[in-house]
Design brief:
There is one protein chain. The protein has 279 residues and is of the alpha/beta class. It folds into two domains: 146 residues, Rhodanese-like domain (Oxidized Rhodanese, domain 1, 3-Layer(aba) Sandwich), CATH 3.40.250; 114 residues, Oxidized Rhodanese, domain 1, CATH 3.40.250.10. The chain has a five-stranded parallel β-sheet with strand order 1-5-4-2-3. It has a four-stranded parallel β-sheet with strand order 7-6-8-9, with helices on one face. Helix 4 crosses helix 9.
Amino acid sequence: MAFTTLISVTELAKHIGDPAFAIFDCRFKLDDIEAGRRVYYEAHVPGAVYAHLDYDLSGWKTGANGRHPLPTPQMMNATFGAWGISADTQVAAYDDQGGGMGASRLWWMLRYMGHEKVAVLDGGWQAWESASLPTESGIVMRPPTTYLGQPRPDMRRDADEIANGHFIVIDARSLPRHRGNEEPLDPVAGRIPGSRHHFYLSNLGSDGRMLPPEKLRAKFQSVLGDAPADHCVFYCGSGVSAAFNVLAMEVAGMPGAKMYPGSWSEWIGDPNRPVARGD
């Protein structure tokens, strides 16, 4: 059985030590970029490799391509190969935001490179701990392979494509950031003009797990209206939490949503691009 969206702690626990599975710890804090690595050293799911958002899941910054630019396909292939991922590897990723931070970014990147067998741990690290499942400390490395993925360009849209107004653009950031009332991470507050709003953490229930498909579907339909899923593009601050909305759309049975990887931090890299604020 292949896991392509979510995997439960019960299912993942069955595959600890399974060479066909590769597990990745993607915990990360935007305001302390080594916090995730520190807690990983202390305790993680057995066999999990640490995936650093800045160093492993991001490319080179130019000053105009956002805080977490998408790596080139060559860079992604090199990273996935160094991590021991092959074409038939089942990948499982987790973080401590239910999947809404680094785990869904890794999920999206692998899917973008044509790898279908990748899933996010439902409930994340907290669900694993709550289930009193085993952990280990220290560093894990896997034997390297050669990974030869090919990008799927239709999964993404760039700033120019968004600016032409042919897509429904949806902001995954918090409502105060969407309105431009605050901006803790980027130098300009506001949103892409015309963009709608769906906060990525609203995909989670009170237990920290993904909402049932029917509830997710109702939430997304209230934002999309009659528009098909493949006409929407999600963005956030830097192309991380937006991936969680793409994942949630898949769980909801609404596949085909796109992502703008550069997101807000890239959008404002060009002072000629318009900015909207307020309600």
